[in-house]
Write a structure and sequence with these properties.
The structure is a homodimer. By secondary structure, chain A is mainly beta. Chain A has 2 domains: about 100 residues, Crystallins (Gamma-B Crystallin, domain 1, Sandwich); about 90 residues, Crystallins (Gamma-B Crystallin, domain 1, Sandwich). Chain A contains 3 helices and 14 strands. In chain A, the strands form 4 sheets. Chain A has a 4-stranded antiparallel beta sheet. A 4-stranded antiparallel beta sheet of chain A has the order 9-8-10-13, with no helix packed on it. A 3-stranded antiparallel beta sheet of chain A has the order 5-4-7, with no helix packed on it. In chain A, β1 and β2 form a beta hairpin. The relative contact order of chain A is 0.16. The N terminus of chain A is likely disordered. At the A-B interface, α1, β6, α2, α3 and β11 of A face α1, β6, α2, α3 and β11 of B.
Chain lengths: ~200, ~200
Amino acid sequence: MNPEQQMEQRGRSQWSITVFEEEYFQGKSCQFTMECQNILDRDFRKIRSIKVENGPWVGYEYPEFQGQQFVLEKGDYPCYHAWSGNSSYRTEHLLSFRPIQCAKHSDSKVSLYECEDFQGRKFELCDDYPSLQAMGWCSKEVPSIKVNSGAWVAYQYPGYRGYQYILERDRREGEFRNYNEFGTQAHTNQIQSIRRIQH
Amino acid sequence: MNPEQQMEQRGRSQWSITVFEEEYFQGKSCQFTMECQNILDRDFRKIRSIKVENGPWVGYEYPEFQGQQFVLEKGDYPCYHAWSGNSSYRTEHLLSFRPIQCAKHSDSKVSLYECEDFQGRKFELCDDYPSLQAMGWCSKEVPSIKVNSGAWVAYQYPGYRGYQYILERDRREGEFRNYNEFGTQAHTNQIQSIRRIQH
């Protein structure tokens, strides 16, 4: 498929996600093309598997987009472990989700800052970095982040593992002044890898 | 840091990894600059945390580079969950490891094939893909893979999650004819994301 065909396909496609009450796409299911604030309101007890027909989406541990965050790109997620990537804090909940509107591969820029409130030295990135330390960032922590364009996902550990923080230009005007603003579950500013979220 | 400085830094650096018997870099430790076939031979009972001073490395579940594979890029891994990314099959072992020699960001190419033994339609990649399906690959499986240059890591699930398969030009001449050749722990050809491994 050439880039033009891909663009055409993207133009046609809407966001679409199907959630299932049981693992491996079994049991009760429901397809969504827009955000869901609380899956419990749809008489689901739990989400145990997911098919993303068109993404990207972000899933949240709790209703109303609270708690742990999980980036959900197109593909099959047959069980909780497929989207969590963080097993030390096993909640196994995913109760709300929404499309990521501003994901746009061709134009993504983010600035990392050495201190909170965008103070200290600044590092500008336009690419994916599985190891910020290999790239020259001297710490395992990132105190504040400004998203200039696009949508990004930052991770606690190298190689895109551990807690995920979805950072979008369209939310908070792209400004994340300290780790409390990364997400409601964040209790450290430890970030060791970061990548763009693509359509 | 500009690209020249980065290159210079890379030129100076050797592979280096420090393993610890306890979580959070506690207890007995040992630094390596070359491969380790079996950490038990060094009177370690287990590896519970890792600092990669210079990478990339690949860790294995069992001695002599057998079992589950874990890509280890520069950074801190305070516990098992930091490198596993796959919690459904909890082994918590990492008993051997080696440097990835052919990781080279500027020149990485891989071909995915629709069927085993490099048959069927071919897809050539030079970039990272968090979702192969979003890129146009119609299946959640990749039956065979040829690495033309560099080193890659393929993952079971989208977004770089689940089982990891390290695929290098320098091993098997880059030829992986079926899922048995992806790794000793592979029992399916399910691959939904792939990325380059960088220095």
